[in-house]
Give the backbone structure.
Amino acid sequence: MKRLFSRAFCLLAISFFSFATTIQAQDLKGIKIGQLSDQQMMQVWQQYSAKGMSESEAMKAMIQKGLSPTEVGAFKRRLLSLQEMQKSKFSAKAFIKDTSMFLNDSSWINEVPLIHPSSKYYGYDFFSNPNTNFQPNLNIATPQNYILGVGDQLTISLYGMNETEIDARVNKDGNIKIEYVGLINVNGLTIEQAKQKIASKMANSYPALAMGKTKLNVSLGNVRTIRISVVGEVERPGGYQVSAVASVFNVLYLTGGPTEKGSLRSVQLVRDNKVIHNIDLYPFLQKGLMPENIRLQDQDVLVFVPASKRVEIAGQVKRPLIYELLPNENLKQALEFAGGFNDTAFIDRIKIVQRNGREKLYKDIEANTFANYIPQQGDSIYADKMEPAFENKVTITGALVRPGLYGFTPNLGLKALLKKADGLRADAFLSRAVIKRVSANKERSMVSVDLNKLNNEANYDLLLQPEDSIQIFAKQDLEDQQYITIDGNVRNPGKILFRKGMTIEDLIAMSGGFASDAAYHRIELSRLQKDRSDVLSNKLVEITKLNVDASLSNSDAKFELTPQDYIYVPRLLNNKFLGDVKVRGEVLFPGNFALERRDETIKDIITRAGGLTQYSSIEDLQVFRHGTRIGVNLEQNASKDMALLMLPGDSLYISRNDPFVEILGGVYNPQLIRFESSSFKSYISAAGGVKNKASLAKAYIQYGNGINRKTTRFLFMKFYPTVRPGSKIIVPDVPEKESTFSIAQFSAITTIVSGLITLAAILKK
């Protein structure tokens, strides 16, 4: 028995540890807090606390691992209820100090924005807030219109000459039982009606009650639960058991509110198969105004009907969303739902795109008709942005101390405007300025101004008009920007803005100086010839060679430059790393060897690699250039091929001396055979001969150096290539030839033969 108990305890401990690990590390999607034991709840919270997480960080971590926001809220409430009971078992460090702040903190919702994506329909996000808790308030005075029913508990208090308190529960028959009084039926009565009936019944047993010397008070103790049904376009339809003092709003939050297809303007309360209330939620969402506090009764039905008319309001409004309208609501009311226009809106007119069968209509609705226009289902309402338009401004730009917009006043002259702009800059072009003008009928014109005359003649001025735009040119604005180009072996080659007096010395310094391999003694300067003739010239550029020293101190460094000069600094001729050659295989020191000279050969590189090992096969040397094999045959052209010049990036591979010959392809027994003879056919025979579908005539040898040799034919004689150690004999398969005798040809022949037989039968008759 002890063994069984020990095993069960171990399994329970393993299961609990596994769950605690899972809720910390794995996906929490689908976890229900109500299914956890108290021990598991506290253990999970201690694990988060041990990591140094704040309460909000722990909530955020749970959300990110898949725990639904509703379950996170349940976790918080249950954790607080366990806190006092578990203090004796767990460390106080794991407990929440400020319980009210912890319960109300919803910052974790904002930190995980993908929990509830925003809806494009107005009002639906309110019901999807996981932090919303809208339980009925049971601490309020009993509503006078509350209807008593089976399961309610009444507290009946007598005070005055008689003092007593009686608790009475309404039984299944709707009666309460009071000692010395008997049964009193209160089912279906309001609290006030029940009080009057109870007082009349108790007056016989308590005479002072009738004389007014004893007072009676009836209040509601424990409240019964009622069952209601929720149907239609709602997030969580079904049956609900709620407190009898719950209102329609309490149930709205329990169900998660309507779906995006459901209506917020018409939630129907059905009682005894009749719609007794049509609830519009917009007054609450817009202004916080609760509709009539409608109490629910047992077997009530809440019906969420589909939305009937929706319009989209976009553009320059405060809440651009899709809104639901009642049949008679106008455009003005729709704009009020959207919060009205924002500060940048054009409020005189609204644009509406309206469906008209298969097409759409475009409407402009003036502001004075907003209250009379009734939007239709699917209308798109758009508020334009106010474009800035000024009636009293002038603009002045260009070579001024303070260019910009200035206010226009009657009789404003150009001199006065220049004074407002703190005058002209020193680089202003005085010969010409322009005034761009737009007349009242939108005709564009231009007025030229001589600023020299404006400055020198006291009586000369130009009167401005509203919306004038004055442009003062700068001297450099009327000239091309001139550049000098430096290229080649300097640190920062490119174009440099020309300035008068620039020299080679300045240009080199501005380009960061010479590169380490610059041949500065051979600088080449190219200069365009200033040829203004109309005859086509052959020579366009003049070349100058400059010998500049590294310190930029000799006479050539002082050479003065002109615009559009091109300077090239070449590289030193022999200051160059040639590259390397890779050597692999049977050499003493394989590796990458830098080319020492431009004329190094295969033989030189192998010598630098220490020469060949005793196992090498130099005849099978393989040379690669840019990944492509170079055909060398040291057996026939050893001296010539060993003198092949190496280039940067080349690779050498020296094979190992292989004493075997490999036979592949269309033979009966492909294998490796030790080299004993140079006879081709002897190896074919050793491999079992050639298969029926193989071709000995097309057989070939691949040597170790990558060179292939095929079988040759002269008259009726075949000459097979010589076999060497390390060779591969390859006998290819020959694909079967397709029959050229088609079904169509067979059909044609059959038709001809049939015709001949018929003709013969006719002639025989």
